[in-house]
Amino acid sequence: MKTSVAWQEDVHFTAQTGSGFSIEIDGNQEKGARPMELILAGLGGCTSYDVVKILQKSRQDVVSCVADIDAERSDGVPAVFTKINIKFVVKGRKLKSSMVERAVKLSAEEYCSASLMLERGGVEITHSYEVIEVE
């Protein structure tokens, strides 16, 4: 896996992913996301992918899955993440709460590389979920 990050100006950079996508990064948030926001976005994408795939394989009728992520950082330098909470809001038809709970747990404990890497680095990650029935 490769990514290239090129300086544009000031604190603005453009990342070119190995899969061919561009991501704008900006420390001032004027032209792109801050680098630490992208870490949270990567975590959210990784774990959401797991949760959705596990639910689909369990024949759950998922129509929406949103991971709302809140994080705390240390006061010192470097200002690393110390705590992260991921709340999944899963919408679907006749979803079983136990299946959503299982999917979240499997992602957290076995599948999500980003989550496991951050936890091994000392970040406390907690998970919760809400199931919303839709017609």
Automatic annotation (TrEMBL):
Which InterPro entries does the protein's record reference? KH_dom-like_a/b, OsmC/Ohr_fam, OsmC/Ohrsf
User: Source organism's superkingdom?
Assistant: Bacteria
A Pfam family found in this protein is: OsmC
| Signal sequence bounds | none
Its recorded name reads: OsmC family protein
Organism, by scientific name, is Marinomonas phaeophyticola
